[in-house]
Known about the structure:
Layout: H1 11-30, H2 37-42, E1 49-52, E2 64-67, H3 69-79, H4 88-94, H5 100-109, H6 115-127, H7 134-141, H8 144-165
Antiparallel strand pairs: 1-2
Helix pairs in contact: 1-8, 4-6, 5-8, 6-7, 6-8
Amino acid sequence: MRSKQKGVVCFMDQDWEYRQQLVEELKQETASFWRYLPWLEKNAGQTGSTYYQDPESTEHSLKFPVYDSTLMGFVKEMSRSSLMDKNYRYVYTRNRIKTHEEERRIIQNADLKDWDMLRGILSKYVLGGRTKGYLWSQGLQENIYYLVLKQMQKIIEYWDKSIQME
């Protein structure tokens, strides 16, 4: 909608154009990850890893985790994406997130304006897993990966449809 005055663009037009561009960018950022949704849903609650110990080792030898190849592919691809937020800790302190239940509640209630919170939660498990390996498994076990991606997909679909309807 253009206003009657020459050269003046109505704010609604600017909002609509910005939202359309934003949703298109978000679609492109997330498109390659939708293929993981069925696997993440199927493996929710699983650890995604096993522990390996050399059969000839003693009881005091270290065991180390061996991660599922699909989980590692997801983590590797995700860690290189623009969805990662290196300052994810601020999302947790700013929103006082302390438990998995709080994460799930925030994810479930997230909308387009909360996109950065979703990125922060996802980043905790992907980037945080680099130094605390158990986080990669925990993201799968607590169903965080699936819930965040599914919510991102819902947000994009909702706004993409509403933009097409306008």
